[in-house]
């Protein structure tokens, strides 16, 4: 129960506090009038804003403006600038992820330039030795006639998937079955693939029977060992293609490739006097597989001048545009599409000279009668580019060749050969087209910094400070939330205006009662605090 002494002490304390409060208020007013800078400094220090707030343009005005209208204005400016900076930064990131590119074109001069793959094929794929074939048949079938033997050869070539066997379309189904029976007797003991390879090896035309003379850069070359090799071409059978690294080392006519060719046999073409009426030239960038386009036709006793232009294309990989897994055109894809769409999917078998095409499921070679029955629609009229079961994506790095052909009739017939071809580049140079990204990593970083720097004046250091501040704030918040002790909670919930139960001054030397605080034996108002120079001023806390 309180005593009279305690009541007197409380009254004295309250009176002393009122006197001091009046003086402190007067001193506070004087300080405010005499030294505005000191007041502003104290105000800023008292509120204890993070240091980075002064580095964001407009943040100080938004925090320290005394007018609500000014604060609202500056906060609106900060919101608009932050929104604009964020939006433009998002656009920069999206543009960087999409990978904007530019294409550079350079003309490069070289001392040597590789010729494209030049493939030479007879027009009709029947350049065979008929006498050898006929003798081979008569060994097994002595009674066979020349006409029947010729029809069997037509049946075999058409059933192997070779085009321009026009007479096969005039045979009815009954006669085709008879030819199939004769063919089975002739090929007894061999599967269709082995028989095709055997007959082509024994009775097919050779390199020497096709080429008469070869020259490169003014120097004579051996056509069969130095220049050409055998290559299978869809619907054309076996042809000859230039070897890799056949290079032109001099400009135009001086370094040109000269080919003089004979006219091979055409044993099923009486309308052409049993000789090849044309030679077909294919020009590709791929030495592994041959596309049957673009193609150029050479005629007997004509001068043929072919010029090339070269372009090296290097693109960045885009899944729908190009791939880095291959170089050049995906020639195997075109061949695979034609073979799969026209033969494999329809008959569940393949052709004897196209058994090594990649990504084609293993199949047995078709029996010739299977293909012959639908020859006109399956082989003769269907071109390689007419059916695509899948898109053929070219390589990101590839050579592209432009080809022009000039033809003129010779004044006199050629002697010793029938066909001529001269091919070369105009100049030893090529066009280099390269795709590059327009935004590099340093450029991307400078653009990101430029957006926030333009709108808010931020730098990477400021962003780091903001990040550290936010992490620390969140950590401290949850730490206090989950780690606060029960004693701290009781102390926080105690009424600051109450003293000890016995009215004594606490051990820390502070007394709070009715808005008053005693520090070191001196009673102060909670709205007034001492400063370093001994004066009193109002607290902004």
Structural description of this entry:
The chain has helices spanning 4-34, 36-47, 59-64, 68-98, 130-140, 146-159, 173-186, 192-203, 207-210, 223-227, 331-347, 368-372, 375-380, 441-455, 460-483, 486-493, and strands at residues 101-109, 113-114, 117-122, 211-216, 219-221, 228-233, 237-242, 247-248, 257-261, 279-284, 295-298, 302-314, 323-327, 395-409, 419-425, 429-437, 510-513, 516-519, 522-525, 528-530, 536-538. The protein is an alpha+beta fold. It has a domain at 108-437. The strands form 5 sheets. Strands 1, 4, 5, 9, 12, 13, 14, 15 and 16 form a 9-stranded mixed sheet that branches. Strands 6-7-3-10-11 form a 5-stranded antiparallel sheet. A 3-stranded antiparallel sheet has the order 17-18-19. α5 crosses α6 and α6 (146-159) packs across α7. The relative contact order is 0.15.
């Amino acid at each position: 129960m309180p005593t009279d002494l305690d009541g007197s002490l409380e009254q004295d304390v309250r009176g002393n506090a009122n006197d001091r409060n009046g003086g402190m208020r007067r001193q506070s007013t004087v300080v405010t009038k005499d030294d505005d800078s000191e007041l502003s400094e104290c105000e800023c220090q008292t509120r204890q804003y993070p240091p980075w707030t002064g580095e964001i343009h407009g943040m100080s005005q938004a925090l320290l403006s005394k007018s609500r209208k000014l604060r609202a204005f500056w906060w609106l400016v900060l919101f608009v600038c932050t929104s604009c900076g964020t939006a433009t930064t998002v656009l920069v990131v999206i543009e960087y992820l999409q990978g904007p590119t530019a294409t550079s074109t350079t003309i490069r001069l070289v001392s040597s330039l590789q010729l494209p793959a030049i493939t030479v094929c007879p027009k009709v794929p029947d350049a065979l030795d008929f006498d050898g074939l006929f003798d081979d048949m008569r060994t097994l079938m002595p009674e066979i006639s020349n006409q029947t033997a010729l029809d069997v050869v037509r049946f075999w070539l058409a059933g192997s998937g070779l085009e321009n066997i026009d007479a096969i379309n005039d045979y009815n189904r009954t006669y085709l079955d008879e030819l199939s029976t004769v063919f089975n007797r002739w090929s007894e003991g061999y599967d269709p693939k082995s028989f095709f390879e055997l007959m082509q090896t024994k009775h097919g035309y050779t390199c020497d029977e096709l080429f008469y003379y070869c020259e490169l850069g003014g120097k004579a070359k051996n056509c069969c060992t130095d220049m050409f090799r055998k290559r299978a071409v869809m619907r054309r059978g076996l042809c000859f293609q230039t070897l890799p690294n056949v290079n032109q080392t001099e400009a135009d006519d001086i370094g040109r490739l000269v080919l003089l060719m004979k006219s091979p046999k055409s044993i099923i073409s009486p309308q052409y006097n049993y000789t090849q009426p044309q030679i077909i030239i294919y020009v590709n960038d791929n030495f592994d597989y041959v596309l049957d386009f673009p193609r150029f036709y050479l005629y007997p006793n004509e001068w043929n001048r072919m010029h090339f232009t070269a372009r090296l294309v290097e693109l960045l990989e885009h899944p729908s545009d190009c791939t880095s897994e291959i170089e050049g055109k995906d020639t195997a894809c075109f061949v695979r599409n034609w073979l799969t769409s026209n033969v494999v999917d329809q008959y569940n078998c393949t052709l004897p000279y196209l058994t090594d095409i990649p990504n084609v499921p293993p199949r047995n070679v078709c029996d010739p009668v299977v293909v012959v029955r639908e020859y006109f629609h399956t082989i003769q009229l269907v071109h390689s580019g007419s059916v695509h079961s899948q898109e053929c994506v070219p390589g990101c790095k590839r050579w592209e060749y432009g080809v022009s052909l000039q033809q003129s009739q010779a004044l006199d017939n050629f002697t010793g050969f029938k066909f001529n071809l001269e091919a070369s580049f105009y100049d030893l140079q090529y066009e280099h087209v390269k795709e590059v990204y327009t935004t590099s990593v340093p450029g991307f970083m400078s653009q990101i910094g430029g957006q926030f720097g333009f709108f808010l004046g931020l730098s990477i250091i400021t962003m780091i400070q903001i990040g550290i501040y936010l992490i620390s704030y969140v950590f401290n918040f949850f730490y206090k939330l989950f780690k606060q002790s029960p004693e701290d909670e009781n102390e926080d919930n105690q009424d600051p205006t109450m003293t000890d139960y016995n009215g004594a001054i606490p051990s820390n030397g502070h007394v709070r009662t009715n808005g008053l605080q005693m520090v070191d034996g001196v009673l102060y108002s909670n709205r007034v605090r001492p400063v370093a120079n001994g004066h009193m001023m109002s607290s902004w806390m």
